[in-house]
From TrEMBL:
<feature type="domain" description="PPIase FKBP-type">
    <location>
        <begin position="162"/>
        <end position="247"/>
    </location>
</feature>
<protein>
    <recommendedName>
        <fullName>Trigger factor</fullName>
        <ecNumber>5.2.1.8</ecNumber>
    </recommendedName>
</protein>
<dbReference type="InterPro" id="IPR036611">
    <property type="entry name" value="Trigger_fac_ribosome-bd_sf"/>
</dbReference>
<keyword id="KW-0132">Cell division</keyword>
<dbReference type="Pfam" id="PF05698">
    <property type="entry name" value="Trigger_C"/>
</dbReference>
<dbReference type="Pfam" id="PF05697">
    <property type="entry name" value="Trigger_N"/>
</dbReference>
<comment type="function">
    <text>Involved in protein export. Acts as a chaperone by maintaining the newly synthesized protein in an open conformation. Functions as a peptidyl-prolyl cis-trans isomerase.</text>
</comment>
<dbReference type="InterPro" id="IPR008880">
    <property type="entry name" value="Trigger_fac_C"/>
</dbReference>
<keyword id="KW-0697">Rotamase</keyword>
<dbReference type="GO" id="GO:0051083">
    <property type="term" value="P:'de novo' cotranslational protein folding"/>
</dbReference>
<keyword id="KW-0131">Cell cycle</keyword>
<dbReference type="InterPro" id="IPR046357">
    <property type="entry name" value="PPIase_dom_sf"/>
</dbReference>
<dbReference type="InterPro" id="IPR008881">
    <property type="entry name" value="Trigger_fac_ribosome-bd_bac"/>
</dbReference>
<keyword id="KW-0143">Chaperone</keyword>
<keyword id="KW-0963">Cytoplasm</keyword>
<comment type="similarity">
    <text>Belongs to the FKBP-type PPIase family. Tig subfamily.</text>
</comment>
<dbReference type="GO" id="GO:0043335">
    <property type="term" value="P:protein unfolding"/>
</dbReference>
Amino acid sequence: MQANLEQISTLERRINLAVPMQQIETEVSNRLRDIARNTKLDGFRRGKVPMSLVTKQYGGQIHQEVLGDAVQKSFMEAIQAHQLKVAGYPRIEPRADATDKASIEFSATFEVYPEVSLGDVSSARITRPVVTVSDADVDKTLEVLRKQRVQFNTVDRASQTGDLVTLDYIGKIDGAVFEGGEAKGFRVVLGEGRTLPEFETALVDVKAGENKSFDVTFPEAYQAKELAGKTATFEVSVTDIAAPKLPEVDAEFATSLGVADGDVQKMRAEIQANLEREVKNRIHARLKEQVMQAFLDSTKIEVPKSLLEMETQRLMQNALKDMQARGMNVNPNEVPLPADIFTEQALRRVSLGLILAEAVRVNELTAKPEQINVLIQEFAQSYEDPQEVIKWHHQNPERMQEIESLALENNVVEWALERVQVEDQSISFDELMGKA
């Protein structure tokens, strides 16, 4: 094998290689003989098929396989000889200026990983939220949990906000029932905003057994384009009015939340512990985001185009899967997502990946087994059977790799927090949760 290295740009390289033709032909012959020993064709016993027929049937395929293997092996030997770290995949092409008829000459064009020189983050200013979970925060969470378990009981009165109204309706536009404009047993909780505001407003102060007709104008930006901006006449027949009844905060309620003995104080303590765990995670996420930005601001790096393209494609595929998981009928071949909307995010992710890898290497921030175990245990605490979750992690190599990556990021964040300027800021629980 012959190889020479050419630098095209800061990160792009080209290696010219030549593989002896005799080497290819010898390997092709060896593989065809191996195939002939076990080949059976009509009219011939196994292993007795003439080589001419074996070559005719399998020769082309075997030649391509041998050539591909030889090219791959030559490329790997070349980059190891030059001590190169390849980013992405090489572009293999036959050489147009090939002159050696005794060899197969080709070139491999590729990018290498950049040399990363970590910047100084010591001048970065980072704000660390300080949050105390109060009894009032526990009370608010209890109210949310109660509303999630609300029961509706039929009442003999006119409907009001908060009631569950059951009705049959027919909606018409220009005298014709539109698609989706008819339903029986339709249920709507007044005030939740799950239907058009005009529709809900018209259902306030109605009684079971009452019939009512009213107009509703669909918004210009309505999701069903054929209805957008149009006015429909609805004829409704109310069949039931049910008032909400929240469960009492008692032993039965505590048991429904997983507190086996129904102890209300124990339930409150568990809710507080869950909120404090969420506070810890939110604070860590904010600190991590600021630390990552500090690294990006202080470290200049050239990102390989191949890695950027790969990450952009990965983000696009994830977005499509997410849209499909939400019930959207998305065909990527018919409605391709524009790559440029993911470019900025991809650039950030690839840049941070390269920077953090260097920070881990230079500062010996490798994740320790005990750190990984702590993360798994913390994650498992939010589940009903933590031990099963822990077991599932240890049996799942991909998930273990994700946890190790989190541990590495945590190590980098802790390392950076010892060097940056940190200012504590007291804020409320609701502010941290984005509710204020």
